[in-house]
Amino acid sequence: MTKGPVISGLVILALAFLSYSALFTINQAEQALVLQFGDPKRVITEPGLKMKLPFIQEVARYDKRVLDYDAPAEEVIAEDQKRLVVDVFVRYRITDPLKFRQTVRRELLLRDRLKSMTSNAMRGVVGKVQMLDLLSEKRTGIMHDIRDVMNAEGGSFGIEVIDVRARRADLPEANSEAIYNRMKSEREREAKEFRAQGAEAAQRIRSLAERNRTVLLAEARKTGEILRGEGDSQSIKIYAEAFGKDVDFFSFYRSMEAYRKSLSGDGTTMVLSPDSEFFRYFKEFSGKK
User: Fold this and answer.
1) % the chain with pLDDT above 70
2) How far apart are CA 43 and CA 59, in angstroms?
3) What number of other Cβ atoms are within 10 A of residue 125's Cβ?
4) What is the model's pLDDT at position 287?
5) Do 87 and 144 lie in a common domain?
6) pLDDT of 19-61, one tens digit each?
7) Which residues of 62-85 are buried (b: 16+ CB within 10 A; e: fewer)?
8) Are 69 and 4 in contact (CB under 8 A)?
9) Domain total of the chain
10) Partners of 279 in the β-ladder
11) Residues 6+ apart with CB under 8 A from 202
């Protein structure tokens, strides 16, 4: 009686083990191949619970989602013989797992194929366009052409290239350095030219200002001399008229002025004869000897 439950338990365990080996699930992000001794027997693209022969068949799973490949920067030559460093990334997905296994087997090996495909497609497409086209709004169309070229080859691997985008498209470092140096030299030349023009304009302005200053000073001196001459003439005329009206008073006034100017300083010493004409008004108011 004790053997029955044991046998039942063993049967249940065996059935569970067989079920575990025969049943498997595929989620929405996967697709699979059922292999029998390494040979593909079935392609599974729909998610759900699936069956296979236990112990004989195995399942190879492949990603069903859109995958990314970051291609290394590639130096290419445009139609106008200009060199450019183009950095792109590729988005693709596995559409035929059977063909994919037969050609590249694993996604890791596909990376090497994608590198070669991307390089060949970029060289082929970019070599037919101008450098400025790749740097303008035409870039999107060029990227689509690269995608189409890659798809023509990628179909044989069971993949579909969905999109190709360029991160950057720059001149090579050596070319960039040469262009930078040329632009720097050009800017320095322009700066020297502008400085020379500025120095010339400044010198011209200074010369004009100096000439105007000289002219203004000469005119001012001329006007001053004329006014001084007119003033002296007017002064002489006034003195002459005054002298003509009262000679004695004018002579007295001039003598008083001479006394004031000559005797006003401290410690003034004068050596003159008492009979000098200079002291005549010290003797009499009339100034007569």
Assistant:
1) 76
2) 10
3) 22
4) 47
5) yes
6) 667 788 888 888 988 888 888 888 888 888 888 888 788 888 8
7) bebeebebebeebebebeeeeebb
8) no
9) 4
10) none
11) none
